[in-house]
Design a protein that fits this description.
alpha/beta; seven-stranded mixed sheet; four-stranded mixed sheet; 12 helices; about 40% helix; globular; binds 5-S-methyl-1-O-phosphono-5-thio-D-ribulose
Length: about 375
């Protein structure tokens, strides 16, 4: 690593039928690369969160569909080929419900693969599309960094050399995408340009993507940061210690409602109450062009109770898990919440910054006209 960000998913250089990815389960303690060569393995990697984060989930699904074409080619006829693809698509889409990037990538693959006349052509198209999805994700995040940088520069002018304090939640860093990250891209760009940024990293219970992944990314990059309990954000805002909030999103409706990791909504409420700008950084692959009402329509993932009742960490060279809550207590584990558009100051996309409303979003992406 040595301070550098890293691509999170790629093809094995000497065997193009194998996908390699960073297995995030053991970070920040152990850096592991996993090899995935079947749809089943990719389904497990997404569902069990070896890979996670909306952009990376989408890119992984894109490569999963490429693996599906290789598997389907071993089937006897055209109908069997199509059947295998349809079943792989359904399996991949069922892994995690909230991030729209997943169904977007699978749909894009199915459309492209259908253009192929022969099996070989279909495999080649799926490979090209998987690479394109990954390359676009990387480029879009790089652009988000440039557009978000201007926002941080504006705040820096008012702070006259004092640190600019950014609060973020969960991990919307390069680990959550193919590279650069969404919420972290402007932070890295600001830091690299010499601005004194400091990041408040909310730990993000129950899986601690903040204290495990965002803190690791920022320390590798040399960005000053402090890990805080999730519930500390409001206190810091009341005391003038937060200049700006930037978070990512797993699905933002084209009307501006934002689904992101559970706890985001409370931060948006506190930011509004304290007059602090609350920005959401996202590539357009995270925009849902069908849903209008995020609160009513976005599916919220519910995960196992053990994630709430237990905590894990590193002890003498291995990951250990301990129980925190009483064994007999039930627990509910909602993975995401929806922040309504009126709490969002703006969206930072690959095409620029816009307001969180239909008119402003459509103006940036006119190709999605109703
Ligand atoms: O459950 P995760 O770790 O996949 O959730 C990730 C987040 O909530 C990120 O903030 C989100 O994906 C937006 S940035 C890709």
């Amino acid at each position: 690593m040595g301070g550098q960000h890293f691509r999170t998913i790629w093809l094995k250089p000497d065997d193009q039928r194998v996908v390699q990815l960073i297995d995030q389960r053991f970070l920040p303690h152990r850096f592991t690369i996993e090899e995935v060569s079947s749809v089943d393995q990719m389904v497990t990697a997404i569902r069990e969160m070896h890979v996670r984060g909306a952009g990376l989930i989408g890119a992984s699904a894109g490569y999963g569909m490429y693996l599906a074409t290789i598997e389907a080619a071993k089937r006897p006829g055209v109908a069997e080929f199509d059947q295998h693809l349809a079943s792989a698509a359904a399996q991949l889409k069922a892994t995690r419900p909230t991030a729209v990037n997943l169904s977007w990538a699978v749909g894009r693959q199915l459309e492209k693969i259908a253009d192929g006349k022969t099996t070989e052509e279909k495999i080649a198209l799926a490979l090209r599309t998987a690479k394109l999805i990954a390359d676009e994700d990387e480029e879009h995040c790089r652009m988000i960094g440039q557009h978000g940088l201007s926002l941080i520069q504006q705040i820096a002018r008012k702070k006259a050399g004092k640190p600019i304090n950014v609060l973020t939640h969960c991990n919307a860093g390069w680990l959550a995408f193919v590279d650069y990250g969404s919420a972290t891209a402007p932070i890295y760009a600001a830091h690299d340009s010499g601005l004194p940024v400091h990041v408040w990293v909310a730990e993000t219970r129950p899986r601690n993507q903040g204290s495990k992944l965002t803190a690791w990314e920022l320390s590798e990059h040399g960005v000053p940061h402090t890990v805080i309990a999730d519930s500390a954000g409001g206190h810091l805002m009341q005391h003038g210690e937060v200049d700006l909030v930037i978070v990512g999103t797993d699905r933002t409706t084209h009307t501006g409602d934002v689904a992101n990791k559970i706890g985001t909504y409370l931060k948006a409420l506190a930011a509004k109450a304290n007059n602090i700008p609350f920005y959401v950084a996202l590539p357009s692959s995270s925009i849902d062009w069908k849903m209008r009402d995020g609160l009513k329509e976005i599916p919220i993932e519910e995960r196992g109770a053990e994630e709430i009742k237990h905590a894990d960490g590193w002890l003498e060279g291995r990951q250990v898990e301990v129980r925190v809550a009483p064994e007999q207590s039930p627990a509910a584990n909602y993975g995401f919440d929806v922040t309504p558009r009126h709490l969002v100051t703006g969206l930072i996309t690959e095409r620029g910054v816009c307001e969180a409303n239909e008119k402003s979003i459509r103006a940036l992406f006119p190709q999605h006209a109703p």
